[in-house]
Amino acid sequence: MKRIIIALAVIVVLAAGGGIALSLNTNNGGAVLTASGAGHEVSRADVEENAKGHPFRDQEPDSVSCPGGLPAKEAASMQCTAVYKGRPKSMTISVTEVKDDQVTVDFAILDKSAKIGADEKK
């Protein structure tokens, strides 16, 4: 959880400098997934399927694409892309707890759709 907070703080600072208004959605509940295999990870398919059930602004994503499986290690995280009504959004999936093969994860969406600064002057 500390890693996601630090990462999100860095994103907020960088976005503020770039003139982007941010909206972060973390109030969508987590999930308990099952790790398996020699690498002791949650498969890419399982991560993507479970991520589809986590809404942003009361809307479930049309699709979720992740770069691979999620390691079953506390504080591990990865960036995925969730598509809502044709608009891609960055989704961070973070491991908060691991007990044997049970991996508890949280989902967070970063919305940088509203720009401020130069665009407002038009």
Automatic annotation (TrEMBL):
Every DUF4333 domain range: 33-99
Protein name per the record: DUF4333 domain-containing protein
Listed InterPro entries: DUF4333 (IPR025637)
Species in which this protein is naturally found: Streptomyces paromomycinus (Streptomyces rimosus subsp. paromomycinus)
